[in-house]
């Protein structure tokens, strides 16, 4: 059946089609690849052949499909459906502002909590859904007043009072308005990453933190990252393998809320059942029985152990509080800490992560109990020499982080180098492998390249003004080098994240280079890292949001405006929250343990890392105490340590486990084994105070 739909042209959204609200839209209806499209310059009418049914291109959920590749996800999981609704409205922008402030505040607060938690997009989706529905239901609706006015014989342009009502509340709360709220809120929370620098500067160096420095620096970092994401679109957004797996739950939740009825959809019914059940249950682990956050069966079984035996059990199985232990076989019954993040990741990443965690546990147990690098605190020596030692687990974690960065570059070049070249060549010719982007190019105007270049220039000037004004934080030449480093590594990080759902931390590389160029300047090291690593992280997050916009068919120019708006808003909100928390909880944040409500563990670890790299020539140069942490000499050291401390039966056990592991992964191809992810997770769980 063919359905003509009237269409209007706007300068921001490109071609936008409004569908009459009284027409029921079946979710199974979709745009077929062979649909006939008729575009006329005078009336801009589209005629599309649609079909309903249970075929490969539907999203009915009736058929099961195994999702392995990005093409599988685009075909079976994400329908090419566009109801052609307005996205940028007064209602969506107003609620986006409120929710942006909320998410920025919450993410900033959790940086100062004992357990760092990121507010997931699904949570914002639920709040925005109820707020939008309430807005549409309880405020006067322009579409209804216009219908009544025309029933009474009104013709032509509607009266001004109806136009005002329509501007405030145009009609039903739609998917694109809902998505705008979510994406803007995510953009606003990106600034919380850079705020750690200013919090550490205030807490540990007693240096004044000016509002202009914080806000303009955060804007510079965020907008520069967005400029990079725009340049990276052919491989980071428009490519079919750039899936961004962790964002799929948010996309499917949005689509389910607006396209499916509870009674007709098993997934949406399950979602609301789970939502109601979790709302009732979460009171217990959060407030009534907090011990449900972390339940260790071995610790409960050995609760009467004392002395050295108790210490060993705590080191291995403890972990409910900071700096307690590895948390082996510990169970959590609090979904706040479990989160839905891991559920959305592809099996290949989970397998690499599990293998990495296994190596991490073994390595940290060995390093701790062999006292590698003298990691135990010697109080007598401390009284005599006063020279602190980095904990062994932290030194090992730094080594693995550095190794993961090298593996990141190698893996991307070897496995995806040719694909990157082909993606840019195809983009120049207008050929795209992703059917979602192919649809977007036919129906909406793309944000021009020069918009992103202007953002790069503006953000560069803002950062340059800060480093010139605040002469003590970072030299101008170092500022330029930090940005060049961010530009160089952004493509590798974004490519890996978009295909696997998780990236590689590059902050150790930036801090190492800063330690070489700015010796003895930990504050300068942190600022250098902010304009290199944080730029990379922001560009990655913004590419993620751009892809989400493609999945939900939000006009690219609207995406540009909302993301920039969210970034600017977040800079001001994050500064206000940081000043409030640091000013009111200073003593707790500088204490190693803090309390149940506030902890400076994240800030302390960040500062210790910067301080250690500022002393790089004393700690990490060739022949120095921790040179192994930055070179492959670490492998030789571990080999010698293992030969000395492992008994024959332990070596036999390791070989047996290796044999079993090889049998399990025998069907994997070499491309399934992701060395950057494996190496990263092999040193992943080190956290908290990192120096004795």
Give me the side-by-side strand order of the main sheet.
1-5-4
Distance between the termini: 73 Å
- Helix-and-strand structural type: mainly alpha
Unreliable residue stretches: 1-58, 631-652, 688-692
Number of strands: 7
Report on this model:
Helix 7 (192-205) crosses helix 27 (601-614) and helix 8 runs antiparallel to helix 25. This protein is globular. The strands form three sheets. Strands 1-5-4 form a three-stranded antiparallel sheet, with no helix packed on it. Among the domains are: 2-65, no CATH class; 199-254 and 401-588, no CATH class; 346-400 and 615-692, no CATH class. The protein is built from 31 helices and seven strands. It has 692 residues and is mainly α. The model is unreliable at 1-58, 631-652 and 688-692 (pLDDT under 50).
Which terms summarize this structure?
globular; two-stranded antiparallel sheet; mainly alpha; disordered N terminus; disordered C terminus
Write a compact overview of the structure shown.
By secondary structure, the chain is mainly alpha-helical.
List the helices and strands and how they pair.
Blueprint: E1 2-5, E2 7-10, E3 14-17, E4 30-31, E5 46-51, H1 70-77, H2 90-110, H3 121-138, H4 142-151, H5 160-168, H6 175-189, H7 192-205, H8 211-231, H9 233-236, H10 248-259, H11 266-281, H12 283-288, E6 295-296, H13 297-301, H14 307-317, E7 330-331, H15 335-338, H16 347-369, H17 379-385, H18 392-429, H19 435-443, H20 449-469, H21 476-500, H22 507-517, H23 522-530, H24 533-551, H25 556-584, H26 586-590, H27 601-614, H28 616-619, H29 633-645, H30 648-664, H31 675-681
Antiparallel strand pairs: 1-5, 2-3, 4-5, 6-7
Helix pairs in contact: 2-3, 2-6, 2-25, 3-6, 3-10, 4-5, 6-24, 6-25, 7-23, 7-25, 7-27, 8-20, 8-24, 8-25, 16-31, 18-31, 21-24, 22-23, 22-27, 23-27, 24-25
């Amino acid at each position: 059946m063919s359905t003509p739909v009237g269409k209007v042209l706007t300068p921001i959204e490109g071609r936008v089609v409004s569908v009459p609200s009284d027409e029921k839209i079946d979710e199974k209806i979709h745009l077929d690849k062979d649909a006939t499209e008729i575009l006329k310059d005078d009336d801009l009418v589209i005629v599309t052949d649609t079909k309903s049914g249970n075929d490969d291109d539907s999203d009915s959920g009736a058929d099961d499909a195994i999702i392995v590749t990005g093409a599988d996800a685009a075909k079976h999981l994400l329908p090419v459906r566009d109801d052609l609704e307005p996205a940028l409205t007064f209602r969506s922008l107003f609620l986006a502002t409120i929710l942006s402030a909320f998410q920025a505040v919450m993410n900033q607060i959790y940086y100062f909590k004992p357990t760092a938690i990121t507010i997931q997009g699904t949570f914002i989706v639920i709040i925005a859904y109820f707020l939008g529905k309430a807005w549409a239901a309880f405020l006067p609706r322009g579409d209804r007043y216009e219908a009544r006015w025309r029933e009474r014989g009104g013709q032509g342009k509607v009266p001004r009072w109806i136009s005002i009502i329509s501007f405030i509340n145009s009609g039903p709360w739609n998917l694109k308005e809902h998505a705008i709220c979510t994406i803007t809120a995510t953009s606003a929370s990106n600034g919380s990453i850079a705020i750690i620098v200013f919090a550490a500067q205030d807490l540990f160096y007693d240096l004044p933190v000016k509002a202009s420095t914080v806000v303009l620096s955060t804007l510079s970092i965020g907008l520069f990252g967005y400029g990079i994401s725009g340049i990276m679109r052919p491989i980071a957004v428009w490519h079919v393998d750039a899936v961004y797996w962790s964002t799929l739950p948010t996309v499917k939740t949005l689509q389910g809320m607006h396209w499916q009825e509870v009674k007709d959809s098993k997934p949406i019914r399950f979602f609301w059942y789970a939502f109601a059940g979790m709302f009732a249950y979460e009171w217990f682990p959060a407030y009534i029985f907090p011990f449900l956050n972390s339940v260790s069966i071995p610790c409960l079984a050995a609760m009467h152990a004392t002395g050295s035996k108790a210490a060993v059990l705590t080191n291995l199985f403890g972990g409910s509080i900071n700096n307690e232990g590895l948390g082996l076989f510990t169970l959590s019954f609090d979904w706040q800490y479990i989160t839905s993040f891991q559920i959305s990741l592809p099996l290949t990443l989970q397998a690499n992560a599990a293998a990495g965690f296994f190596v991490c546990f073994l390595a940290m147990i060995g390093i701790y109990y062999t006292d590698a690098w003298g990691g135990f605190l010697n109080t007598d020596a401390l009284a005599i020499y006063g020279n602190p030692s980095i904990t062994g687990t932290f030194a090992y974690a730094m080594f693995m982080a550095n190794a993961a960065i090298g593996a990141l570059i190698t893996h991307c070049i070897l496995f995806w180098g040719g694909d990157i070249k082909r993606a840019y060549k195809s983009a120049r010719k207008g050929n795209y492998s992703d059917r979602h982007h192919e649809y977007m190019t036919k129906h909406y105007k793309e944000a021009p390249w020069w918009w992103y270049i202007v953002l790069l220039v503006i953000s560069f000037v803002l950062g340059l003004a800060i480093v010139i004004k605040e002469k003590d934080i970072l030299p101008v030449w170092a500022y330029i080098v930090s940005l060049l480093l961010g530009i160089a590594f952004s493509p590798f990080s974004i490519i890996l994240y978009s295909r696997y759902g998780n990236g590689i931390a590059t902050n150790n590389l930036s801090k190492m280079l800063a330690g070489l160029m700015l010796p003895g300047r930990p504050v300068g090291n942190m600022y250098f890292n902010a304009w290199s690593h944080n730029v990379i992280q922001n560009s990655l997050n913004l590419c993620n949001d751009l892809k989400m916009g493609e999945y939900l068919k939000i006009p690219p120019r609207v995406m540009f405006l909302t993301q920039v708006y969210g970034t600017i808003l977040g800079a001001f909100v994050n500064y206000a929250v940081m000043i409030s928390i640091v000013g009111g909880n200073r003593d707790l944040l500088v204490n190693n343990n803090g309390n149940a409500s506030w902890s400076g563990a994240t800030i302390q670890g960040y500062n210790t890392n910067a301080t250690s790299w500022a002393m790089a020539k004393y700690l990490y140069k060739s022949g120095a105490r921790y040179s192994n942490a930055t070179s492959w000499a670490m492998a030789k050291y571990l080999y010698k340590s293992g030969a000395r401390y492992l008994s024959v039966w332990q070596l036999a056990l390791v070989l047996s486990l290796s044999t079993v592991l090889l049998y399990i992964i025998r069907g994997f191809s070499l491309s399934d084994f992701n060395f950057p992810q494996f190496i990263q997770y092999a040193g992943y769980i080190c956290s908290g105070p990192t120096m004795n």
